[in-house]
Amino acid sequence: MKIEHVALYVDDLEGALEFFRTYFDAKAGHKYHNEQTSLSSYFLSFDDGSRLEIMNRYNLQENSNSIFQKGFIHIAISVGSKENVDNLAKRLKDDGYEILSGPRTTGDGYYESTIKGFEGNLIEITI
Hints:
This protein is about 20% helix and about 35% strand. By secondary structure, it is of the alpha+beta class.
């Protein structure tokens, strides 16, 4: 078995698309729109074949935006090397995104940096 994709609701669908294209080289499929439900979405593909669905609709609800809330909390994206983690974390910080941790080696041996990305969604950048 494998996880086929993960989905993320956003307020600004086109802005989210540009964020993942700019920083993580995501490739977008065709935009889907359902007039009855107001759902619009893109499937984003990454070099390893993993996919992220970004979605928007008119009646989204806010979450608590705490790193300790229940449920899915972050997405981890591998960028291949410590140097790439460091460079991307610096680039994101220079572009105004908040670095919540790292870059660092965690107690369980991961080298990572966690950022508050587009619309406050947490992204762990790792090797």
